[in-house]
Amino acid sequence: MIDTDIIIIGAGPVGLFTVFEAGLLKLRCHLIDSLGQPGGQLTEIYPKKPIYDIPGYPSVLAQELVEKLMQQIEPFKPGFTLGERAEKLVRINDNTWEVTTHKGTVHRAPVVAIAGGLGSFEPRKPPIYNIIDYEDNGVDYIIKDPEKYRGKKVVIAGGGDSALDWSIILADIADEVSLVHRRTSFRGALDSVEKVMELAQKGKINLITNAQVIGLEGDTNLTNIVVEEDDKPSYTVALDHFIPLFGLAPKLGPIGEWGLEISDNAIIVDTLDYSTNLNGIYAIGDVNTYQGKLKLILCGFHEGTLMVQSAFKLIHPNQKLSFKYTTVAGVNAF
Amino acid sequence: MDNIINIKIIDRNQTVHEVEAPTDMSMNLMEVCKSYELPVEGICGGMALCASCHVYVESDHELPEASTDEEDMLDQAFFVKNNSRLGCQIKMRDEIDGLVVRLAPVAG
């Protein structure tokens, strides 16, 4: 079990900077994120985009900002539970909240700061009405162990890097690999595209372009997919595994079921300290809403800063908090 | 009126919304939809990075060709057709006065 002062759900820029502000008050933090790396949207959606409204930086690449934030919080030794989605939030007693991830990792703290942005990133699921019936029975959105597909017939759908890379890897492992894509051209790294074309010519990858998978068939396990190609009647393909790889999209997910006041997919907070309707639970950054809310990294930094002041009073009700500038006190590492 | 164009947006319940959009505020169609509180998410804020503003262009206006970024993003979207575009990449200009678009369905 992980014990800390503040559990931060979401390791995006706002969650990260909150570690710094908490650290100045000698509060320890532990971050949980469903993604395998810190940075949230900045790393996952737009790492190479410049951001122009971070004070002091005329322009900074999203990924660079995340790296700088990681450097900035390093003295405060935050803990990380990455690649795990915060699933359950339970009050253990007056001073303790417990957050459990979908993998069962347990975290306890008197304060939880939800900095979950737009939610956790989940694979985009093709809109095929019965796809849920075959999840884990032939449909996989994520490839955990390529060995699973040894000697199998596999169909991958998608046109990006992951669809290309996995087609290349599985071409050597699976019995048959087909790649279905809605266009003839592929985005993604040039060498991956060339490699796929080469494997297609050698007959190691069956390339089905200008096409999409529109149906799934089978009793308990998936046995066939229905493919629709431009200007052709649709046809079925027999297979063992269908792997749609259409990237990730954020979903509010379990946060919506924790008893928090929600409006329009965001958590309602008091702008005094960004507290929610549950004592000890705060919400900062894109995940919260209040009158005049702006979804800006800049605003999230401000929210996290005020929030930790309130968290301090909750955690140490009998201690006086004296505010110190970093220019006077410096940054005293743990 | 100067600097105002008319656009027809058909929502997912087939309701037609005839809206006015300014051409001098560097707005795009996703932002126009949001400002009229139509159900368009625009998660990424207009960077062609989420496809949550996917629309079908139903009038025969000639729009500038989709950028590689836009095409790449449409690869990750569903219900994509030949007239699919991302609303955030359609800039409000005089040339598209009378544009008719339909909001694409939202997956799962």
Describe the structure.
The complex is a heterodimer of chains A (334) and B (108). Chain A is of the alpha/beta class and 334 residues long. Chain A has two domains: 2-122 and 249-329, FAD/NAD(P)-binding domain; 125-246, FAD/NAD(P)-binding domain (3-Layer(bba) Sandwich). Chain A has helices at 13-24, 41-44, 62-73, 161-171, 190-201, 297-315, 326-329; strands at residues 2-3, 6-9, 29-33, 50-51, 60-61, 79-82, 86-93, 96-101, 106-109, 111-114, 120-123, 153-157, 176-180, 206-208, 211-217, 224-229, 235-238, 241-244, 248-251, 262-263, 266-268, 281-283, 288-289. In chain A, helix 1 packs across helix 6 and helix 4 packs across helix 5 (190-201). Chain A starts with a strand and ends in a 5-residue tail after the last helix. The model of chain A has no long low-confidence stretch (mean pLDDT 94). Chain B is of the alpha+beta class. Chain B has one domain (4-103): Beta-grasp domain (Ubiquitin-like (UB roll), Roll). A five-stranded mixed beta sheet of chain B has the order 2-1-5-3-4. In chain B, strand 1 and strand 2 (16-22) form a beta hairpin. The A-B interface holds A 41, 45-46, 49, 118, 124-127, 158-160, 181-183, 187, 212, 246-247, 249-250, 295 and B 43-45, 47, 49-50, 52, 68, 71-72, 74-80, 105, 107-108.
